[in-house]
Amino acid sequence: MIVRRSAMELEKLRRSGLLVYRILQDLKAMVVEGISTQELERAAERMISDAGAKPAFKGYRTQAANTKFPYVLCTSVNEEIVHGMPSSKRKLKAGDIVSLDTGVLLDGYYGDSAITVGVGELNDSVKRLLKITEESLELAIDRVRAGNRLFDVCGTVEKHVVSNGFSVVREFVGHGIGTSLHEEPQIPNYVDRKGENPRLKPGMVLAIEPMVNAGKPDAEVLSDSWTAVAKDGSYSAHFEHMVAVTDNGPWVLTRP
């Protein structure tokens, strides 16, 4: 069942979304050569606590992983697609990219967003990967309009990514969000002809998150049961925003 949120609920989701935005912007400023992903984790945990919120990811369990995620932040470096685990041993190097993905629970409502950040100077092909991935998200956001269908959003990501020579990860998808972190509908970054294609209505809230590989789309999960990587070792980028459907068009809840 897809839940449509009231104006009051959307304001609460907005508060959660803006908190995640501020955390990610502070973390982005910390991404420099030599910092460990564990240092980013500690900073994120402190910021969430100081805001009076709870981490959305820490302790989260999925059937596939069959174990609780132990961190508040996902730090996915280079070929890691999503759910990378912070580590004091993983120090960022010039030329790396790192996806920073975090979520909060504030006043009963969730916020969830992700950005991919480069370390130092990136080569042109990696810059282009980040650019196209972020563009695909912005184009998809523009399709979040009452009367459109979900596949209008999904297909927009797929078309932009594939037409620019990159590939969409198919094993992981976006999701509805509200009083639970993951709600209906599932939001693939491609048109899944076997999936549901609901019409978008005011009050729906979508967490849209393109995950794009520079090489082939195939993914695999490492032995830690969480970290997903590109099978061919190619770099992967990930951006995410929470977007509400309104009578006046898309409302991005995870940025000012």
Q: Enumerate the strands of the largest sheet in spatial order, edge to edge or round the barrel.
A: 8-7-9-14-15
Spatial gap, N to C terminus: 29 Å
CATH superfamily: Creatinase/methionine aminopeptidase superfamily
CATH topological fold name:
Creatine Amidinohydrolase
Radius of gyration: 17 Å
Question: Total number of helical segments?
Answer: 4
Q: Indicate the CATH class.
A: Alpha Beta
Number of domains: 1
Gross CATH architecture: Alpha-Beta Complex
Gist of the model:
This protein has four helices and 15 strands. The chain is of the alpha+beta class and 256 residues long.
What does this structure look like?
With 256 residues, this protein is an alpha+beta fold. It has a single domain, classed as Alpha-Beta Complex (Creatine Amidinohydrolase), CATH 3.90.230.10. It is built from four helices and 15 strands. A five-stranded antiparallel sheet has the order 8-7-9-14-15. Strands 1, 2, 4 and 5 form a four-stranded antiparallel sheet that branches. The protein has a three-stranded antiparallel sheet with strand order 3-12-11, with no helix packed on it. Strand 7 (174-176) and strand 8 form a beta hairpin. Helix 1 packs antiparallel against helix 2 (37-50). The radius of gyration is 17 Å and the shape is globular.
